[in-house]
Amino acid sequence: MIPRRTLLSLLVGALGATSLPALAQAPFDLGPEQPGRIRAEKDPAAIAAVPKGFKFAEPGVFTVGISPGGPPLATYATDAKTVVGADPDFAQLIADSLGLKLNLVPLAWADWPLGLASGKYDAVISNVGVTEQRKEKFDFSTYRLGLHGFFVRADSKVTSIREPKDAAGLSLSVGGGTNQERILVEWSKQNVAAGLKPLELQLFDDEAARLVALRAGRVDVVVQPHAQLVFIAARDKDIKRVGTLSAGWPLKSDVAITTRKGSGLVDALTLATNNLIKSGQYRQALARWGIEEEAVERSETNPPGLPKY
After folding, report:
1. What band does 15 get if pLDDT is binned at 50, 70 and 90?
2. Which pLDDT band holds residue 4 (cuts at 50, 70, 90)?
3. Residues 105 and 64 sit within 8 Å (Cβ to Cβ)
4. Which residues contact 57 (CB under 8 A, 6 or more apart)?
5. pLDDT over 90, % of the chain
6. Residue-wise burial string across 114-124, b where 16 or more C-beta atoms lie within 10 A, e elsewhere
7. Whole-angstrom Cα distance, residue 173 to residue 204?
8. Other Cβ atoms closer than 10 A to 300
């Protein structure tokens, strides 16, 4: 069991704060009770799609592995033990649809493949992207788009970044060695080939340094995973989104519920997700955490995944 003090440290770190009083400034509800969580009724079609012989890790319970990496996707609540966020909310909707109780099992993100393969939990709902390599061992039901965000200072004259030419001549703060850097290097090459100015990339190892550079005016744009920046923008109100970028650019990047390969559960989860999309509860759950931009139009079972780079 993780000591309470350690959990408090994790929560403070996830919020980017330096003291517990800063928790009161969080833009979303991080209390353990979650009275605003969207709930769903049983979905007879999804329940019927669960294979007759499928054995859940615990009878009558949907056991989900989840990494509390930070808000708004998943983080520890103010009680330092309850996991809350957009992914827990979605997991609750799926559990409701299947007529099951929800048990969230916190884990280190790197540990999910072994825990899932061993049957410790029925599924992982923790921002797992679909890749061709992962599809060899796991099944996927997509539920979000994998996006990076372009964010600028609230007073910036930059209003929209949708394609390489929109960023020509701009300076961008980005993590060194990240997927974002790889993509933006390609954008810069395209601009130069088209006779436009290249992108000026400033590489930083941590989020705090990237944001300091933006706020100090040393760079025009910060680029990192979209959901993280949504939380910061809502909390601090001094940066704004001007665009998003597929994490798999130029390909689409899908985030999915992950299950054991061939377990048979994947079709029921895809069906449940699509019915939640139709009912509107899916988008309501995303809106609660400010990430409607990441919504999928429909869930897919094992779509084309990102290739090895």
Report:
1. very low
2. very low
3. yes
4. 63, 119, 120, 121, 122
5. 90
6. eebeeeebbbb
7. 7
8. 18
